């Protein structure tokens, strides 16, 4: 017990010291994690958190709801689901189909669950949606997402609405234990009670799936959940979104979505050494599973200041803005699972808000999407015998069938086009990480508009060849300062996707 207390105080001092010095962290490039008491010892967590165990039910009633699809939900309908929901999911589903108010609530909850992209993390196997089990790699080990279907044994069927609110708004689990911030409660805390309960009402209508995800595999001390108490102290500010009366309803709606439900900052804001979000550099870019989630502040060179509102709406709605950007990797999933379902009004609100955040320069002199010119190496290559690894030859052999040997793409701006690599944000980025990742993993994006597919070359091409192609592509079609080595590609290849 003494050793325990000593370890505890040392860790607390360490955190406090770092917080005081606010040291520049080595770029933390994983989902946040923190700590946790080994399953079964959650009472210790409860001791630290007892003060927080009464749910704070205050909600900002005046949050603008913009153009949510089913409009305002009546108070009566919301109240209808506020009772204890210890029963089965079927009961809730039955209610949903007989009560018009509840049906509206469920529809609204479905929309909000999409905006919050719950399915992305809580689905490991598409045949078991929301049943969890997705491994989330962190610097401290692997977390597996829980089952959030209404199954009473393995899911959250026995959770009351108050339990659910407490998890979403305070990051506290049913047994009073601290949840890890890989669950984005640091953002979800801003969601109003009404919206959280709508999400709950929707989850209650899902088919209950009996499935127990694997146990977390975290190293000591990160398997001590109670340590999250300290993480929260420095990195978590509980509280609902407070609208800014000086801003338009549209701006407030955008802020509510971006800072809350849509949790864009989980990927686009850099982290401090504790894996908390660095609030001084919001939206200025970070690394996610080996991919650069770019700077999306309105700086003209470093960010997306040269994008129009319509460009942002189109990007989030379809994943492609010809002549600027295509969504690959984790962003392709965000578009496919979440933002493509948002109404144009909500997407415009997001654009309006993003255009208003503090611009962060980041050392660039030219926007990512303003580089490159067509190549004509194919002429030089005709009739020559290539014996070594040659970027131009590899490009013509592997990429030109779709992107054209000039790099200008095929099919112009139609939804199924093979995009131009000239004026493309990945090719013009200051480093080639995403380009190498696109070559390794391809592009796979299924939206209402199109099924977009670029093959993955990870199995066909070795690290030398991928580096040679990437360097050829950035030299001609993109930012020539962005170069990669075969070693870099090898490291990116190791990243868990
Ligand atoms: C970025 C990934 C991610 C997203 C997005 C996400 N979750 Fe989770 N969620 C997690 C992880 C990881 C945990 C487990 C945390 C832990 O073990 O402490 C979790 C835990 C939970 C829990 C607690 C379950 C339990 O058994 O303790 C609930 C409830 C929950 N999530 C609901 C949601 C809802 C609703 C949404 C969408 C609005 C959502 N989550 C979106 C990663 C995510
Ligand atoms: C799971 C991580 C993740 C989340 C969450 C996320 N993004 Fe992204 N985002 C990325 C990555 C990675 C890229 C780079 C994509 C690529 O290389 O094609 C990106 C690219 C973008 C771009 C294009 C930038 C450019 O210059 O090409 C925009 C705009 C953007 N994200 C906006 C958003 C908004 C708005 C949200 C919240 C609704 C969001 N993102 C949420 C990871 C994420
Ligand atoms: C079979 C056709 C095909 C081949 C071959 C192909 N691509 Fe692609 N490429 C695509 C498609 C489709 C997209 C995605 C378009 C979209 O997002 O709408 C794409 C997107 C890209 C992007 C933009 C990614 C982003 O996030 O902005 C880059 C860069 C790229 N390809 C490079 C390459 C390179 C380098 C090669 C050769 C190693 C190659 N492609 C081979 C079809 C192809």
TrEMBL record:
Residues 69-99 are annotated as: Disordered. It is found in: Cell membrane. The keyword Hydrolase does not apply. Keywords: Cell membrane, Electron transport, Heme, Iron, Membrane, Metal-binding, Repeat, Signal, Transport. Its cofactor is heme c. One of its GO terms (molecular function) is heme binding. InterPro entries: Cyt_c-like_dom (IPR009056), Cyt_c-like_dom_sf (IPR036909), Cyt_C_IC (IPR008168), Cytochrome_c-type_DH (IPR051459), Membr-bd_ADH_cyt_c (IPR014353). The keyword Cell division does not apply. Binds 3 heme c groups covalently per subunit. Heme c 2 binds at residues 264, 267-268. Residues 69-82 have a biased composition (Low complexity). Its main location: membrane. Residues 1-19 form the signal peptide. GO terms for cellular component: plasma membrane. Heme c 3 binds at residues 399, 402-403. Residues 104-207, 249-358, 386-477 form the Cytochrome c domain. Heme c 1 binds at residues 118, 121-122. Pfam families: Cytochrom_C. This is Cytochrome c. It comes from Trinickia dinghuensis. The lineage of its organism: Bacteria, Pseudomonadati, Pseudomonadota, Betaproteobacteria, Burkholderiales.
């Amino acid at each position: 017990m003494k050793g325990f207390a000593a370890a505890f105080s040392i860790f607390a001092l360490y955190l406090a010291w770092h917080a005081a010095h606010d040291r520049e962290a080595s770029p933390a490039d994983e989902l946040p994690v923190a700590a946790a008491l080994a399953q079964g010892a959650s009472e210790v967590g409860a001791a630290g958190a007892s003060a927080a165990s009464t749910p704070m039910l205050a909600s900002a009633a005046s949050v603008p709801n913009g153009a949510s699809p089913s409009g305002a939900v009546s108070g009566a309908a919301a109240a209808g689901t506020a009772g204890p929901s210890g029963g089965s999911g079927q009961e809730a589903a039955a209610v949903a189909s007989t009560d018009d108010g509840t049906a509206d609530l469920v529809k609204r909850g479905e929309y909000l669950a999409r905006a919050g992209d719950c399915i992305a993390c809580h689905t490991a196997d598409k045949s078991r949606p929301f049943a969890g089990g997705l491994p989330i790699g962190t610097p401290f080990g692997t977390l597996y997402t829980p089952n959030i279907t209404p199954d009473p044994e393995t899911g959250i069927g026995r959770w009351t609405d108050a339990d659910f609110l407490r998890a979403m708004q305070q990051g506290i689990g049913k047994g009073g234990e601290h949840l890890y911030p890989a669950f984005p409660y640091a953002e979800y805390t801003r969601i109003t009670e009404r919206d959280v309960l709508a999400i709950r009402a929707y989850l209650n209508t899902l088919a209950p799936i009996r499935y127990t995800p694997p146990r977390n595999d975290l190293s000591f001390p990160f398997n001590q959940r109670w340590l999250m108490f300290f993480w929260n102290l420095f990195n978590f500010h509980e509280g609902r979104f407070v609208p800014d009366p000086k801003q338009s309803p549209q701006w407030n709606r955008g802020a509510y979505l971006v800072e809350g439900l849509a949790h864009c900052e989980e990927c686009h804001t850099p982290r401090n050494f504790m894996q908390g979000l660095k609030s001084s550099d919001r939206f200025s870019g970070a690394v996610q599973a080996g991919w650069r989630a770019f700077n999306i502040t309105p700086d003209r060179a470093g960010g997306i200041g040269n994008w129009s509102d319509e460009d942002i709406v189109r990007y989030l709605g379809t994943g492609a803005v010809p002549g600027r950007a295509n969504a690959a990797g984790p962003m392709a999933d965000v578009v496919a699972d979440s933002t493509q379902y948002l109404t144009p009004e909500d997407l415009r609100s997001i654009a309006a808000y993003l255009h208003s955040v503090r611009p962060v320069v980041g050392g660039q002199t030219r926007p990512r999407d303003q580089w490159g010119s067509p190549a004509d190496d194919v002429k030089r290559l005709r009739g020559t015998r290539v014996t070594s690894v040659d970027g131009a030859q590899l490009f013509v052999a592997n990429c030109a069938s779709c992107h054209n040997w000039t790099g200008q793409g095929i099919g112009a701006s139609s939804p199924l086009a093979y995009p131009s690599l000239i004026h493309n944000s990945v090719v013009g980025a200051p480093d080639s990480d995403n380009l190498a990742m696109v070559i390794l993993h391809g592009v796979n994006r299924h939206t209402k508009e199109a099924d977009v597919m670029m093959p993955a070359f990870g199995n066909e091409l070795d690290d030398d060849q991928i580096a040679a192609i990437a360097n050829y592509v950035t030299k001609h079609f993109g930012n020539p300062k962005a170069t990669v080595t075969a070693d870099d590609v090898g490291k990116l290849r190791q990243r868990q996707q």
